[in-house]
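Section 4.2 – Deliverable D4.2 (structural model, holo form)

The reporting period included a commitment to supply a predicted holo structure for the target in complex with zinc ion. Inputs used:
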Amino acid sequence: MNKLANFIKIVLRQSHKALEKREIPVGSVIFDPTTGKIVAKAHNRELSLKDPFAHSEILCIRKACKKLNQKRLDGLSLISYLEPCDMCREVIKSARIKKVYFLFKNKNPKRKTVAKTQYKKVLFEEENLIKEFFKMRRANN
Ligand SMILES: [Zn+2]
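Output (structure tokens):
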């Protein structure tokens, strides 16, 4: 677990970088637990990129996927300054990251302070491309 201490140092450095830019101070590192090597590191850049996706975890996942030239990060671990929010959790799940460490608990991961968005299914019963896509994929296997 000595490696984890090194990763924490990098997470702290990344978090400080974000703070220097007046961003929410969250940094992340993705590493391979079998080799102990860092795959990617990033810090929050929502303000500078004017991008609500630019949480450190998302940017770190994007960098790791680009570096490894794949859309999944099976078996890799992520360490973040703050417990990932719900958006990041979903992306972490999609990327198949196996383990997530964090230094501080997120007191508002569901963003209860933000106005609720309404989701409504419209009446539409015609072609379902999603269904067709997975049917085609199953047929090809
Ligand atoms: Zn997030």
